[in-house]
From TrEMBL:
This is Peptide/nickel transport system substrate-binding protein. Residues 1-28 form the signal peptide. Pfam families: SBP_bac_5. It comes from the Bacteria. GO terms for molecular function: peptide transmembrane transporter activity. Its main location: other. The keyword Signal applies. GO terms for biological process: peptide transport. Belongs to the bacterial solute-binding protein 5 family. GO terms for cellular component: cell envelope.
Length: 543
């Protein structure tokens, strides 16, 4: 929940803390298959079976945090007015964050000032209750967000929407969003925020004590999305049925999807091999490697914006010296890690701006594995040897392998690292205190924009700025970016950002591993979601 008087910058940072997901196999997917090609050869199967690691914590989209099962489901069962298109990245099909298109909406366009955005709804679209989706539902949904200070209320401040009076019903099928200023982030922010509740149904369950029906929505699935929830057994299984009334492009290709809760990855692997499930959304590491050789199973691989890095605290010795940071950047065996940890299934990257993000430049990270340069950089700091702990997630086998390889090479340059695996609670507590000098991080951004990246990780007070990094020029660029909508001008700003980050080197950026997903051979149509939340409508399978 966002405090009522928090600054725009602060809310950007709050939004960023929600928007940056840590690596997980729970919700992402990817494929080399063309989603437009539909099912694989043979008749399409009517039911697809998917294993997930956990049951969702609530059905209320407005008040769910880091629950990836819930967030993935919401993308499929709530009616989102707009969504990302699909494009190619290498051999993969991925969601296209540069192409946001109407889905349940007919259109969503700005006026000449780019401050007033008009949403036009398609006529005749109905919720499962039979109620037609109208402008009043949009208005009620956003009034609820502002009144109850839901997640959306915080994120909306990034684009100059701070009060319900800025959401105006023009007629039954038209709504205006009147922003305080133009913003280049509007389409992306609305792509993650513009979902709609069945307000007529909700009002039946509102009470004086609970005017926005929070208690009812937490326990009851929404309707009107690409799929409707036809069965939900708490902690066990959820059944989705394709919404045949969906009016837009790319409707569901499979009529029924059953999601079963299988917490243990080993059990998911066994069920997949036995053909009891078609897709396993929770397998990594050795179980994944074993499945590459399993009969009847294929492991889909797709480009991902998941970024693996080492954050260095620029306020903690020895990394408060930029030359020590450069020494470590030159001592990391990048190619070796890609080969030995990811089996070559990762993309090297040359910037702290993720690959595929608009503005990415290979000049953004000029460091390669070079022990001579590492030693020279350390000598430039006036030191012959330094030491630090290197923190990583205790239950993350990939991070452990990276830590071991970095430790070995850094030692050759005079940097002694003590490996410190931490459990989630301890890691979270130390991250909150920003007390870790050196740590491995993995994560991806929901909003594919450098302004958002800065907001989450590289400006003063940013929630994920574990490096404690600040730079006056970055702060100025960040402020200027808020109202800069011209794409060419923004790209110029991002070039400056990457030049500054290259000189300051607050992070060692290692690579972007591809996302791997084990499925039965009959499964087709996976699209890699750049926000980590699978769109199940593209899935299909032969009978």
């Amino acid at each position: 929940m966002a405090p009522p008087n928090i600054s725009r910058r602060g809310l950007l940072q709050l939004g960023g803390s929600v928007a940056l997901l840590m690596t997980t196999g729970a919700c992402a997917a990817g494929s080399k298959d063309n989603p437009d090609a539909g099912a694989s050869a043979g008749p399409a199967a009517g039911t697809l079976r998917i294993a997930v690691s956990s049951y969702l914590s609530s059905w209320d989209q407005d008040f769910v945090g880091f629950d990836l099962t819930a967030l993935m489901l919401f993308k499929n069962v709530y009616p989102y007015m707009i969504d990302y298109g699909v494009t190619s990245a290498g051999d993969s099909q991925i969601l296209d964050t540069a192409n946001i298109t109407p889905t349940f909406a007919e259109s969503f366009e700005p006026d000449a000032t780019q401050k007033v955005w008009t949403l036009k709804l398609r006529k005749g679209v109905k919720f499962a209750s039979g109620n037609e989706m109208k402008a009043a539902d949009v208005k009620w949904s956003k009034d609820r967000a502002f009144a109850a200070q839901a997640n959306v209320a915080g994120v909306y401040r990034t684009i100059g929407l701070t009060k319900p009076e800025q959401v105006v019903v023009v007629d039954d099928y038209t709504v205006e969003f009147r922003q305080e200023f133009p913003s280049a982030l509007t389409r992306q922010i609305q792509a993650i925020s513009l979902y709609v509740f069945d307000s007529a149904e909700a009002k039946k369950h509102a009470t004086e004590a609970d005017p926005w029906a929070k208690e009812w929505f937490a326990k009851n699935a929404p309707t009107g999305g690409y799929f409707n929830v036809t069965k939900a057994n708490q902690g066990q299984e959820i059944e989705l049925s394709a919404n045949t009334g969906y009016p837009g492009p790319d409707g569901a290709k499979t009529s029924t999807i059953r999601l079963s809760v299988v917490p243990a990855a080993a059990n998911q692997r066994l069920q997949l091999q036995a053909g009891d499930i078609d897709i396993a959304l929770g397998i990594t590491g050795q179980d994944l490697q074993d499945l590459k050789k399993a009969e009847g199973v294929k492991v889909l691989s797709a480009a991902s914006n998941n970024q693996v890095a080492i954050q260095m605290s620029v306020t903690t010795a020895p990394f408060d010296d930029v030359n020590v940071r450069k020494a470590l950047a030159y001592a990391v065996p990048y190619e070796q890690i890609v080969k030995n940890v990811y089996g070559g299934d990762a993309r090297p990257t040359k910037s702290l701006v993720p690959l595929d993000m608009p503005g990415y430049s290979e000049s953004g990270y000029p460091y390669t594995y070079d022990l001579d340069k590492a030693k020279q950089a350390l000598a430039a700091s006036g030191k012959t040897a330094v030491s630090s702990e290197l923190v990583f997630e205790a239950d993350n086998a990939e991070q452990q392998k990276i830590a071991v390889q970095v430790q070995a090479e850094a030692a050759k340059a005079g940097i002694t690292l003590k490996l410190t695996p931490l459990d989630p609670a301890t890691l979270g507590e130390r991250r909150t205190r920003k007390s870790i000098p050196l740590q491995i991080t993995t994560g991806q951004l929901w909003v594919n924009d450098v302004e958002y990246m800065l907001a989450t990780s590289f400006v003063k007070g940013a929630a994920l700025n574990y490096s404690n990094y600040t730079n006056p020029e970055i702060e100025q660029i960040y402020t200027k970016a808020h109202t800069t909508v011209d794409e060419t001008a923004r790209r110029q700003l991002w070039t400056q950002v990457q030049s500054i980050l290259a000189a300051d080197v607050p992070w060692v950026v290692i690579c972007q591993p591809n996302f791997n997903l084990p499925v039965r051979e009959k499964v087709a149509g996976w699209v890699q979601p750049m926000d980590g939340l699978a769109r199940l409508r593209y899935l299909s399978a032969s009978a």
